[in-house]
Design goal:
alpha+beta; 4-stranded antiparallel beta sheet; globular
C-alpha cells in the first residue's frame, strides 16, 4: 500500500462548494481507499492506495465529487514520498517568519510548472517565486490578497494548480509520517480550523 494525499481546490470558501469532511472521508472510502483521514477543513485527505496512479486517482475522486455533490472540484493527488520531496525542495521556507505568506502550488502535471517558468524572469521583489521538480513556491511578502505574484501565477496556471500555505504543508507532512504508526489517533488531524490563507 502507498500513502497518498489528495488536495481539493476551492471547497468550503464562502458558501460555495461546501463539503463536510465526514462526507469527504466517506466518499474516499467508498472508492476503495483505506485509512482515510482529513486535515483541516479545506480539502486535504490522507489515505492508503494499492499501486496508485495519481492521475487516475484524482480523476476518480473528481468524478465521485461531481456525482455526489453536483459540482466540479479540481483534485491533485501525490504520494507521501512526493510530498516529502516538495517540502525538501522549498528554497523559500525561511523567507518569512509568517508561514501563511509562503504558498506551495501543487500541480497534477509538470507541464503546468513549465507555463509558470517565464515568471521567473520578472522582478517580483519584495515577493519571490521558485519552481521545484513537483511544485512552485510563492512568497507573498504583503499577504495573499495584495499579491501581484499570485495574480500572475493564477493567470498562467488557471485551475491546474492548488495552493496550500507552508503551515498546512508541514501539517500534511507530519500526518503522513505518523500515519504509519498504529498509535496515531484520528482526532489529531481531523477537524479543527482551516488555515484559510492559501487553504
Amino acid at each position: 500500500m502507498t500513502q497518498c494525499i489528495a488536495l481539493l481546490r476551492g471547497i468550503n470558501v464562502g458558501r460555495a462548494k461546501r463539503v463536510a469532511m465526514a462526507d469527504l472521508r466517506s466518499l474516499i472510502e467508498g472508492l476503495g481507499f483505506l485509512d482515510v483521514h482529513t486535515l483541516l477543513n479545506s480539502g486535504n485527505v490522507v489515505f492508503q492506495a494499492a499501486r496508485p496512479s495519481p492521475t487516475k486517482v484524482a480523476s476518480a475522486i473528481e468524478a465521485a465529487i461531481q456525482g455526489r455533490f453536483g459540482f466540479s472540484v479540481p483534485v491533485v493527488v501525490l504520494t507521501a514520498r512526493d510530498l516529502h520531496t516538495v517540502v525538501a525542495e522549498n528554497p523559500l521556507a525561511q523567507a518569512s517568519d509568517d508561514p501563511s505568506k509562503v504558498l506551495v502550488a501543487f500541480v497534477a502535471k509538470g507541464a503546468v510548472l513549465g507555463k509558470a517558468k517565464p515568471l521567473l524572469e520578472e522582478a517580483w521583489a519584495p515577493e519571490a517565486l521558485a519552481i521545484g521538480s513537483k511544485a512552485a513556491y510563492l512568497w507573498c511578502a504583503r499577504g495573499i490578497i495584495d499579491s501581484n505574484l499570485i495574480k500572475a501565477f493564477s493567470r498562467v496556471t488557471a485551475d491546474a494548480a492548488t495552493t496550500r500555505n507552508w503551515r498546512t504543508v508541514l501539517k500534511l507532512q507530519a500526518a503522513t509520517r505518523v500515519g504509519q504508526d498504529a498509535t496515531w489517533q484520528k482526532h489529531h488531524v481531523c477537524g479543527g480550523p482551516s488555515d484559510r490563507n492559501g487553504e
